[in-house]
Model the fold of this input.
Amino acid sequence: MANKDVTDPVRMEKIVSLCKRRGFIFQASELYGGLNGCWDYGPLGAELKRNLKDYWWRKTVQERDDVLGMDGSILTHQDVLKASGHVGGFSDPMVDCKTCKGRYRADNLDTLKCGQKPSCKPGGHSACELTEPRAFDLMLSTKLGALATDNDPKAVAYLRPETAQSIFVQYKNVLDSNRVKLPFGIAQIGKSFRNEINPRNFTFRSREFEQMEIEYFCHPDDGMRLTDEWLEARLAFYDEIGIPREKLHILDVPDGERAFYSKKTYDIEYEFPFGIQELEGVAYRTDYDLGVHQKGANKPLEYFDEETKQKFLPHVVEPSAGCDRTVLALICEAFDEETLTDDKGKEDIRTVLRFKPTMAPIKVGIFPLLKKNEEQVRIAREIQKSLQKWMTVFYDDSGAVGRRYRRQDEVGTPYCVTIDFDTLGENGEELKGTVTVRERDSMAQQRLPIDQLLPWLLERVR
Ligand code: GAP
Done:
């Protein structure tokens, strides 16, 4: 059993610094001092996140016959979230420190720092004076409509705390408009919002974050089996994107720690540098959700099985993944510092993000060896144009080619293509029209004819 508390703050610091330096992730509203718990993805972070979401959508919706997609509204009717139990019931226990005025999540004190003495946890310093825990509401609300007055309770709408609820309330519409049969799922990727007491560990616990959720509707007899099947499918997914099985831990959440309506919940956890923490939950939610909405809206949500003539409320298995957490896990997993020794015995550290090519933000770097050589530049630009329609490429002609390789290693670009004097045929006819392709992880180089580049790359990066 791996130790949950093993951490590597130095590694984490390097990762956070690389993310900012190379434009993966910035603090939101940084120019104005930052908005705690909110993050902006820069050019490379946006590409990485998009690759993850596209892959999840492809595997979950496009390549399965039994899962349909939807894209629900973030702003949610208060009655939806009253029925689901979120309004008035979605809270974390919070304690205040009367001395330093800090506010802390009471069930996380062990992992937090005292406001006065950061080497202690809150409550661990002699001057700390913690209150009894009280419920802190995690819901974020707004007022909708031009006619809404400040105290009109009907104008209150909520920023959804999970994408799941719009799936439950649209379940009947999806069922009726698509003539699907049980079991089937509805998948959604989208933003969710929680007023977390202590956002922390970079993007891991944020106040605005993105989820990738599947609500899989089934016959009550199949719920337990499907929960186990979904767990396996989700583990396979992580392996495919570059988060290996041995870095994942499955927590079979014990009775008494699961939501009261859940018959089974697995937490899929990853070995982050700040400890083993949850990436995704796979929960068997029974008919709780459709049940509360059937009652709340007073509209029937039962399913009629034509074959058995049975009428029943479907049960739900929910694999619910955090998109930002998975992006963070991808970066943490990919980050590597490799010691290289040159011919003279001099050591050098190479920083590499070893992303799977499907996830890498940039698929190929394109370099003319000499930027003053017009022919090399012309061919490089031509290659750039032809590849750009298919994948994200980066053209770079500044500095020594070795430095250009290193810059691409640091952002995880799996391949670099160099157009050199051999390409022009200056060292013999047999190499004319070929380029050097350099592979990130092995640093091995090979020559490929320009007209074979696109199929060669497509086979590897999609
Ligand atoms: N519909 C079920 C649900 O929302 P959850 O365990 O609260 O369950 C599911 O959230 C996933 O969403 C988590 O496993 C995590 O990956 C992500 N998530 C939840 N809260 C988050 C936060 N504050 N910041 C980033 N990701 C979060």
Q: What stands out?
A: The first helix runs from residue 9 to 21.
